[in-house]
Design goal:
Keywords: Membrane, Transmembrane, Transmembrane helix. It comes from Filimonas zeae. Pfam families: PAP2. This is Phosphatase PAP2 family protein. There is one protein chain. The chain has 223 residues and is mostly helical. Helix content is 73%, strand content 0%. Helix 4 crosses helix 8, helix 5 runs antiparallel to helix 6 and helix 7 packs antiparallel against helix 8.
């Protein structure tokens, strides 16, 4: 990068969107460190048991079936094929850089989940699991995956030619649906609330860092 490009890169850090991404990234890191240390490593129950007690009051066969259907969208059986479709569409529309970036961020998020689970090795809740599950608990893989997916789709949606109201509404729906998938993991007793919060925080760190990297400087190839 030339001196002019370097100066433009540092000035880009002062733009509103980059500053928001930095704040979101740092806030997510702060919360993740707190959850990982105070709840997971120190084994303190700050809100997990209360979350389980809340959902136990609303546990019915109908709600359990609905939760299982919703939680499916946070798993690989849904996300992998959908990612392939999105990547193929971007590629055919000659948005090949976006296609490559989407594939790289999505794949890295799955690998990140596996690494963090093996680092913390937190056991699943001892309550009866209402869905088939395996592996360690923290952070929630479904939550990390669906929030990453929602974040990527929100970014792509926002950069379309659709009216602003439609884009904003779509982004809100995507975020709320991702939150709903996270809630189902607690309802189904396969994750603690802190697992879901941890998954959201890891996503915030990862996507925030990616946004800053890809939008800092004079990256003309990002088209």
């Amino acid at each position: 990068m030339t001196d002019t490009g370097t100066k433009r890169g540092w000035l880009r850090l002062l733009s509103l969107d980059i500053l928001i991404a930095m704040v979101f990234c740092l806030a997510s890191l702060t919360v993740f460190v707190f959850v990982a240390n105070e709840i997971v490593l120190e084994n303190r129950d700050l809100f997990d048991s209360r979350a389980f007690r809340f959902f136990e009051q609303h546990t019915t066969e109908a709600n359990t079936r609905l939760a299982r259907n919703i939680t499916f969208f946070g798993g690989g059986y849904w996300l992998f094929p959908f990612y392939l479709v999105i990547i193929a569409v971007l590629w055919l529309k000659r948005k090949r850089n976006y296609a490559i970036i989407t594939a790289a961020i999505a794949l890295a998020s799955f690998l990140l989940t596996a690494v963090l689970k093996n680092v913390f090795q937190r056991e699943r809740p001892s309550l009866e699991h209402l869905d088939v599950v395996g592996g360690y608990s923290f952070p929630s893989g479904h939550s990390l995956a669906i929030f990453t997916f929602a974040g990527l789709m929100m970014y792509l949606l926002w950069h379309t030619a659709l009216p602003a109201f439609v884009r904003l509404s779509g982004c809100i729906v995507l975020f709320l649906f991702a939150c709903l998938v996270g809630v189902t993991r607690i309802y189904l007793h396969v994750h603690y609330a802190s697992d879901v919060l941890g998954g959201f925080c890891v996503t915030g760190i990862w996507l925030g860092a990616c946004y800053i990297y890809f939008h800092w400087g004079n990256k003309k190839w990002l088209v």
